[in-house]
User: Fold this.
Amino acid sequence: MNYTAQRFLNDALQKSFDKEHRKRINFNIGRYDLAVNTGKQQYRDLELAKRRAANVKNKVINKLDGYLTEFKRNFESQGGTVLWAPGERDAQKEIMQIIKKAKAKVIVKQKSMVSEELQLNELLEKNKRKVFETDLGEYIVQLAGEKPYHIVTPAMHKSKEDVSELFHQKFGLPGNTPPEEITKFVREKLRNEFIRADVGITGANFLIADCGAVALTENEGNGLLSFAFPKIHIVVAGIERIIPSLEDLDLFLPLLATYGTGQHITAYNNILFGPKKENEPDGPEKMYVILVDNKRTEILKYQEQRKALSCIRCGACLNECPVYRNVGGYTYDSVYSGPIGSVISPYLKGLRDYNHLSFASSLCGKCTEVCPVKIPLHELLLRNRKEAVLRNYSNYNWRRLMRGWNYTMLHRWMLDKPGAGIKNRAISLFGAKMWGPRRTLPKVANKNFKELWKDRQSVT
Assistant:
């Protein structure tokens, strides 16, 4: 077993039996579940909306190069600039070149998982730039020196007492400051940073091909301020964020709101058509869109796994996953956690070292059931497992065990011949460690089903 897999098991064991962690996560996800149930009421035929969204995204993924080219052409015709970043370092290089050329010292950032993928905060701080996360949850984890715990709710793992203590340590706020007062404090503090920022960096919920526009949807207004005040706006987006038409937002924005936060529609929805024009009072003078591959084309190579690129980052699969709810976000050691992370992270970070994530699943299928774009996540986890086995990336002892089990299941006498005592000793000897110290080992009955059936037939 490689080091990454062993660390996952150790962290999972620790978190699974952390009762306080369970309490926080289950409380926060419980509130989410109630909100989503309310949000779904806006649909007369939710399944139809999901099928349509899946069809649109599948069409895009299968013709991705054409849609990306169309987006680039239309966006640049409106005065923007599109830059291509095959890998993480390419994206970092492009971003730093823009910032250095502008002599920018202060950067404000909207919440963006791609920027986490690129380790953008660390890059900017290393180059002696001040960078401020402007989403409240992201700002909290930035202050704590942590990473986002969840795709949608970065500080899900923290209680209000944790946050209050953090702001007491960092800013001297009174202990047990209520959330409303903390929010007010952050709003006032960040307002000055928006005004003096040289560069604003955001992600993109959707890139619209037919009109060359960037769609941003959010609830706090920080994304709007991140591009309205600074003279330069940098959009960092994965190449899979494309949708064909502006009209498709009518389908995707309500789905993202419903499954992301349980709303009918998010509070702030902006469509950006490049830098500001002559008659516009605010907005950036220059706007760049950096299209990030960073091994997404590795996923694209696989006919089935490529469906995972349809993800709209709503986080629903994380909230429903029994594994995520027990082991938590940090255990995955990846920007993308939960079922969607277990599907795509092995390709983004290397199948050899991260294939264990695809085995960390109950295969209950709940993730597939809740996905608003109908990604068959539990099936893709099985595809990943198969790929890992075919490449001999799975654990050697596990492969031996599976070969033995396969042989046994194909030869019935091996199941029938040993008595219950021998089977129970074998289970105790070879299975105890794998079964774990907190579970009781199952015991084989004195008579198997075949023997019980035979007895029953003789009686009748």
Notes: Strands lie at 81-85, 106-109, 130-133, 199-202, 206-208, 213-218, 232-238, 242-243, 268-272, 286-292. The domain at 68-256+265-294 is CATH 3.40.50.10420 (Rossmann fold).
